[in-house]
Amino acid sequence: MSDQPILSTQPLGPLWPTLDPFLFCAHHDDAYPRGNGAFAPSVPLDGRQIGSDFSRQDGWSMYHGETVPGFPAHPHRGFETVTLVRSGLADHSDSLGAAARFGRGDVQWLTAGRGIVHSEMFPLLNADAANPLELFQVWLNLPARHKMAAPHFTMFWGERIPRLVHRDAEGREATVTVVAGELPGAAAPLAPPPESWASQPGADVAIWTLHLAPGATWTLPAARGEGTRRMLYFFMGQGLRVGPQQVSGHGALELVADRDWQLANTGDTAVECLLLQGRPIGEPVVQYGPFVMNTQQEIMQAMQDYRRTQFGGWPWPQSDPVHGAEPRRFARYPGRQTEDLPG
């Protein structure tokens, strides 16, 4: 048995490499400026390709937003989006009539299933100071039998997400935030949507974020499932050691999943990592933009269905809704009372 935990290392580009059952992972870290009182940047947008601005000019992008940064109404079919907002606030609206403003550690889990249209906008609420935003968006595939499941929207509020805090003899702290998957020592995991691959027996899906203080160590436990694959994204900090291997720089590290490995922060600043793991679905993947199916014929059908039905239509007066000027967090579920949380 090899004592080398790292099977491969890949660089972190605009889109991070993923392993089945994951399809996509993006890290948005935008140093947005002050707002102009109408949720848009207070600075000129000259030099940006408005409607498709991924430039990171001045440390931020407008993405597909034309006035407010973000992603106006767009469709999905055949997979799930899991959005972890680490700082700042995001506004969600969708074709089910669901809406939310969330952030500061909150997670939105959206099963597109047979089809949904949603928008993800980043309103700049603060006109007196900067509006930094940091989030991960992860796409988790659905197995063929669930690709046409009913769409499902849910929120995991940051205060309720399980966390494990480990302190060594010197008080150096490692914190693991458990969005999905079981972790010994943490509270029971929150339940993923019912048709998710993360809800299937033996799928062994985990989505964790890790924070290691300088000098801190923590033992990453072996995956629970046979055949599980595991990717550790080292994206912040100066030095990380995995087992006996020192990592030379930031990257996506595929790890041997069936063994415990000690993680150690060998630098002078905090280390941050994202972990994605799961047993592969092992089915063909055919993708066309926002649609992910198993065959080209199913992609063609998705395009036809969207042109014909708009996946239920868009109930909002504009394609890029913003949910007011108050920084309150909330979720309005279809057919349910609005859930309000502290700002």
Describe the protein.
The structure is a single chain. With 343 residues, the chain is mainly beta. It has 2 domains: 1-16 and 163-283, Jelly Rolls (Sandwich), CATH 2.60.120; 22-41 and 62-160 and 299-314, Jelly Rolls. Helix content is 4%, strand content 41%. It has a 7-stranded antiparallel beta sheet, with no helix packed on it. The protein has a 6-stranded antiparallel beta sheet with strand order 3-8-5-6-23-24, with no helix packed on it. It has a 5-stranded antiparallel beta sheet with strand order 2-9-4-7-10, with no helix packed on it. A hairpin with a 6-residue loop joins β23 (329-332) and β24. The longest helix is centred in the last third of the chain and has 14 residues, at 296-309.
- The end-to-end span amounts to 50 Å
Unreliable segments of 5+ consecutive residues: none
Structural class: mainly beta
Q: How many DSSP H or I helices? A: 1
- Secondary-structure element series: EEEEEEEEEEEEEEEEEEEEEEHEE
Helix coverage percent of residues?
A: under 10%
Architecture of the largest domain in CATH?
Sandwich
The CATH topology name of the largest domain reads Jelly Rolls
Tell me the CATH superfamily of the largest domain.
Jelly Rolls
Summed over residues and divided by their number, the pLDDT gives a mean of 96
User: How many domains, as an integer?
Assistant: 2
Strand order of the largest sheet: 1-18-15-20-13-12-11
What gross morphology would you assign? globular
Radius of gyration: 20 Å
Q: At the first level of CATH, what is the class of the largest domain? A: Mainly Beta
Structure summary, number of beta strands: 24
Q: What is the percentage of strand-forming residues?
A: 35-45%
What composes the largest sheet?
A: 7 strands, antiparallel
